[in-house]
Amino acid sequence: MTFPFFMPPGVAFTNGHFTAENIITKVTHSGDLAGIFHDQTAWRAIPSETPIYQVEMLSSAQGEGELYVGTTHLNPGRVGDEFYMTRGHFHQRREQGEVYFGLRGSGLLLLQNEQGEARLEEVSPGSVHIIPGLTAHRLINTGTEVLSALAVWPSIAGHDYAALAQGFALRVVLHDGKIQAKEVQNG
């Protein structure tokens, strides 16, 4: 009996790019991130077409029990004293978790629960991050090269950006040549 062999999609662990057909790519530009950075004057000074990050996803089935696989490529840079970051989100289905794998670059994963308690994890090649359900998450590039992280999450999870309209509880900035986390004062 002869069995057919299929070549599955692949990812280059040195740069996080997929080798597959039907890759879905989305680029998020500075102009797409209104209200994300603290220093709005510095944000407006950046051309709105400046790419901040790109997400590549494998085309996947959707539904209960199915998974998405994608890679985020976050450029280095700052808006004022704040490092480039992804928009960040909760999942629409809050109980759904996610896993990140650091591939290249250096940065931080900002995690925050629904009560506003936040923590940071270092992201680097080989790091593994288990993001539990009920937890918002955001990547922050604190390095000088592209930060790439591979992610796996349930296709039913969805994204809820509106729940973070007031932002995250922490900002990551460069102050006196040092990376620092500062609490956000709302109100």
UniProtKB/TrEMBL annotation:
Gene Ontology MF term list: glucose-6-phosphate isomerase activity; metal ion binding
CDD domains: cupin_PGI
Protein name: glucose-6-phosphate isomerase
Family indicated by similarity: Belongs to the archaeal-type GPI family.
Domain Glucose-6-phosphate isomerase prokaryote: 29-180
Pathway recorded for this protein: Carbohydrate degradation; glycolysis; D-glyceraldehyde 3-phosphate and glycerone phosphate from D-glucose: step 2/4
Catalytic activities: alpha-D-glucose 6-phosphate = beta-D-fructose 6-phosphate
EC number: 5.3.1.9
One GO cellular component term: cytoplasm
GO BP terms: gluconeogenesis; glycolytic process
Keywords: Gluconeogenesis, Glycolysis, Isomerase, Metal-binding
UniProt xrefs under Pfam families: GPI (PF06560)
